[in-house]
Amino acid sequence: MTTHISVTAPEHGTAPVLEMIKVGVEFGVGRDWVPAAKNLSYSIRRGQILAVVGESGSGKSASSMAILDLLPRNSRVTGSIKLDGEELRGLTSGHMRQVRGAKVAAIFQEPMTALNPVFTIGFQIVETLRVHTGMRPIDARVRAIELLTMVELPDPEKAYNSYPHQLSGGQRQRAMIAQALSCDPMLLIADEPTTALDVTVQAEILELLRDLRDKLNSAVLLITHDMGVVADLADDIVVMKDGEIVEAGEVHQIFSAPKHPYTRALLAAVPRLGFGFGPDDATGAIDVSAALMEALEQGPVTTTDRTTRADRPGSPDAALRMDDISVEFGQRRKIKAFKAVDRVSLSISPGEVLGLVGESGSGKTTVGRAAVGLQPISEGSLIVTGRDISHASSKDLRGLRRRVGIVFQDPSSSLNPRLSIGDSIGEPLKLAGEARGKALGLRVEELLDSVQLPRSYRNRYPHELSGGQKQRVGIARALSLSPLLLVADEPTSALDVSVQATVLTLLKELQERMKFACLFISHDLAVIDIMADRIAVMHKGRIVETGSRDDVLRAPANPYTQRLIAAIPVPDPDAQRDRRQLRLALMRTAVD
Amino acid sequence: MTQVLETEKKTEQVGHSQARLIFGRFVEHKIALVSILIVAFITVLSWSVVGVGSIPGWWHLTYNQLNPLIDGGRPTMSVVPQWLGGEGVFLGEHPFGQDRIGKDYFAMTMRGIQNSLTVMFIVGILATVIGTVIGAVAGYYRGVIDAILMRFTDLIIIIPVIVIGALVGSIASTLGGAIDGPVILGILLGLFTWTTLARLVRGEFFTLREREFVEAARVAGASDARIIFKHILPNAIGVVIVAATLLMAGAILLEVALGFLGLGVRPPDVSLGRLISENQSSFAHRPWLFWWPGLFIITLALCINFIGDGLRDAFDPRQRRFRPRRQKKVLK
């Protein structure tokens, strides 16, 4: 299927900067050539942002690496890639080097690994400048600081002399963008530029990219899996599946009237904040924008009065009760301990789902690990399913194991690659002495049924399963002893959005049937919204707001919660434009 | 709503375990496969020729019996068939020749191989077990236990291997009268050569213990021993096997070096190193006394290294080289 994007906006109307004609990418695996991308045709003009959307394995990154000729050796490219009318395929490596950096620049997903840790930011930008333009060092330095100012780094001079590890994730990505823009490239390839960033930082980077597009008038190829980011930034969309383009078109058209069933399914699977489960289920819908407007009108004065909404006192039979617990890391002689969790109080009643949301480093995972006894606490009292494990010995903890379960974030790491699926699921049962031999086999089969996996999978090994299937196995293992409390630590953040939807549906069904209490941890408020009865917001080791889902989303009291909600991009271009303005207004009042 | 998207192949088939995949990849490595056959052949040959303990082998001469010198001790074996103009294929009375006093050199070489292989296997097994256990415990518990075990390891590492070997060799040779010499030598060498393996295993445990499946096992209620041996060790087995193979290749050379220095296996018993050391002066007159043991040392050391290479490639397929010309057509 080949679809050319028609030039819909003639005001840009010059020749395309990038033209891909029937491009294919193949990888050599074993003795065969396996296609990663087939027959891709699209083009980008100056000032246009084209988003290539697809799930993992759809070939979206492979095709863009083909433009830069950065594919590994076991690959080959077919078709024609034209940059500004010039054919890029078949260029010598020397010529290609002149194109890279000067005419085409790239921003990668993880700025920490994309920047060289042993050189300063300034050095790395100056290097790019001098290689491509032959500038004098003094001029290059001036230009580099100019670039760092352009990407709105708070202190460009200081950033110039900083090493990558001295900057925060968002600042690093800004520095990365500055380096990419140093030679005024005509094409900028942004490969998942915000995936590794927190949602509030992501909003800022997206803001920056939009500004720069207007300023520089270069073409941007945006590769992403996040429909919210697409809605925020893109002019046109190419949807890819299994290495082929299934649909291409203008952003409003794709979002409002997707033609291909895959695009429709993809859009339906994106969790939307305030909608609970999908846009069809309008019963519990909350207009988050309205809630934010209200918060904005009330101004920041009232918010200070009720920054922390008190959690209701935990009943003694709560599945989990945390009273003022703290967790400290790494106290070693003179180095001061780092307080990852600072006097957190939580309680979860039996059968209730508490969503714990926070950004990376907020301490949410540490809270989850403490709840299942994997992380000793340094202060406070921790009562899990009626047992006090504040100062538990390993023997006390062993008793606890039968009453709690945990689902981990990374399905490929949480299953032992040497154990078959059946062995992994059956291990808790076997160790607890619940079942053995044939009875164990039957229980494992029941568990596989309950997570909707075929029974034959019990003899398979983790590497033969997809990410979503592995996560189902992880859920089956966590639920094998029918625990009273389940901790789900970002169970879907490593999964594609469509798979995420199925796993969340499954988890919700199981929770309704088995009535276990659940601490659901996520960085994504939209996912929390689907799962949770109550929401707790964590920021820098503290809980800043707790309340029922309706309360927190309808009337976010804490300024941080408001910022968090406002930063989540809506997968709808028009709604996102409004949300963006709302966020900026909110940020302004916060500054005032 | 989204069931359509996650397509699950519902095929009724038994899964392939990692072990089977690794074995499949190992078999593809032709050189390693041939090497393993050669080592097996040499092992069986040497043991069957010499015999085990009191059971005699199939060769009619022993390594220490004196025979009349035939043709100045020249090898009687012929490998060129008559139809190619040679004398035909036969072994003769003394296929590898005889030494200066008439002992059968075929029997002596085979005895030497047997002793060298005994040392190699004992060193390999013992050092692997010790190294794995020490590395695993140090890597899993970290902290004080790790510090103590690793300082102990350092203590052994700082002594040069050849010095240990000399000491061990002379102890083994004095004890050699009572118990089988090569066995003692193997055990003593094994007690000092596990250090590299311990460090490798410890490093591997450091990374593996942070994986989430270890936490999952802990939540499931697994004991420390179960986590170490059932969950982590099988995932580190690649490192262990590869290191153990290379350790064995090193062990055979160490034994040869000790034999050459006159340590280790004592006369009248023979080892490959001793055979070379004793006959180095007769290189000009009776070169076969030098060639046969040398040939087997090189063959064994090379083959075991190739097996190690094959195992490493089998455990880590990403290291394999890619050859575009060998690729077939596009997979549809």
Précis, in short:
The complex is a heterodimer of chains A (592) and B (332). Chain A is built from 23 helices and 20 strands.
Q: Any overview of this molecule?
A:
The complex is a heterodimer of chains A (592) and B (332). Chain A contains 23 helices and 20 strands. Chain A is α/β, with parallel strands linked by helices. Chain A has a 6-stranded mixed β-sheet, sandwiched between helices.
Q: Mean pLDDT of chain A, rounded to whole units?
A: 83
End-to-end Cα distance of chain A, whole Å, is: 53 Å
Strand content of chain A: 15-25%
The low-pLDDT segments of chain A are 1-12, 278-282, 301-311
Salient structural properties:
heterodimer; A: 592 residues; alpha/beta; six-stranded mixed beta sheet; 20 strands; 22% strand; globular; disordered N terminus; B: 332 residues; mainly alpha; 11 helices; elongated
How is the topology of this model organized?
The complex is a heterodimer of chains A (592) and B (332).
Chain A: E1 18-29, E2 32-44, E3 49-53, H1 60-68, E4 75-83, E5 86-87, H2 93-99, E6 104-107, H3 111-114, H4 121-133, H5 137-150, H6 156-160, H7 169-181, E7 187-191, H8 199-216, E8 219-224, H9 227-233, E9 236-241, E10 244-250, H10 251-256, H11 261-269, H12 288-305, E11 320-329, E12 338-348, E13 353-358, H13 364-371, E14 379-384, E15 387-388, H14 394-400, E16 404-407, H15 411-414, H16 421-431, H17 437-450, H18 467-478, E17 485-489, H19 497-514, E18 517-522, H20 525-531, E19 534-539, E20 542-548, H21 549-554, H22 559-567, H23 573-591
Parallel strand pairs in A: 3-8, 3-9, 6-7, 7-8, 13-18, 13-19, 16-17, 17-18
Antiparallel strand pairs in A: 1-2, 1-4, 4-5, 9-10, 11-12, 11-14, 14-15, 19-20
Chain B: H1 18-28, H2 30-50, H3 105-141, H4 143-157, H5 161-175, H6 181-190, H7 195-208, H8 212-219, H9 224-260, H10 272-279, H11 288-315
Helix pairs in contact in B: 1-11, 2-3, 2-11, 3-4, 3-6, 3-7, 3-9, 3-10, 3-11, 4-7, 5-6, 7-9, 8-9, 9-10, 9-11, 10-11
